[in-house]
Amino acid sequence: MKTRIIMLLLISLSCTLFAQKNDTELLSINNQLSEMSPTGREIHEQSGLKIVCERIEEDGFASAYESYSFSIENNTDHSITEPQWTYTLPLKGGGEFIIATSPNDIFTIPIVESKDLYDIDVDHCISGRIVFRGIIDGEEAIVSYNIMLDLKPHIISYSEIIKTVNETNTAYSIDFTVRYVGSDFLRVGVREEYSPSLIMQTIEEPFVAHVYRSSINAFNYAWVWLHVYNEYGEDEITITLKNLIGDSDITGVQTIHSDFVNASIIKIYTKEGKYMMQITDWDNLKELNQEIYILQLCNKDGIPFKTIKYLKGQ
């Protein structure tokens, strides 16, 4: 009996040592380890290597509808040669499918195509795997990264909100753009303070939607609801609009009087008074890089009728 126990222990120890010695070559062992590793963290960080992506948080969750670029953070004293990247997705029937490979320093993975081919978990995510191999100081090194690709749609961002006040200063319109993925349309709702109604509209502009709503009461608060959905889930953002009466410092938005919209020519100066350029479309102001400008509003004959300070929203 003792002899059998000793033999089993020796066999177990031998298998363990073999796995540790060859884990850079045996993908099956790495696959098993990847299932036990936290999502988004590298497996067997060898020789101070780490796979990084600036657009993905530490939890490793990303959108299946966006492309991402990865690089190697090298904390060793040696350079890396013969880099090789591999990106795989799990197939619905088992096994993995190689999506992309590359010998470059920067590795970019594409958006997920043909989603029905892959194994989708209960949270509507596909678990992808990125493996990097390279030679450091004459020896092969490997590091892996698990990425969870969310199939639910996602609102990425929205631009600064331009508010245009009407002639009587009692109402205003809003104008901005929304970037989103995972759906072909954006739902937008506006509800004003003291009003029970939520006025909805559907904007069928994939990826980048232009939002314009008018006749919002300038005396009250209002809320803008952005909503996207698909067969896997939804995403939403609520934006609070402060009332404009008695509030000249509105963070994140820019209030513009109707005289500004009616100007045929807009001459732009720095806050120190140095002339920069002139434009004919106020949308071009969105391209400005600084924060404060002096604008001279002119009629169609080029005669100025008003000078205002323009604060570009953050």
Automatic annotation (TrEMBL):
Signal sequence bounds: 1-19
Keyword Signal listed: yes
Q: Which UniProt keywords apply?
A: Signal
Protein name per its UniProtKB record? Uncharacterized protein
Lineage in the entry? Bacteria, Pseudomonadati, Bacteroidota, Bacteroidia, Bacteroidales
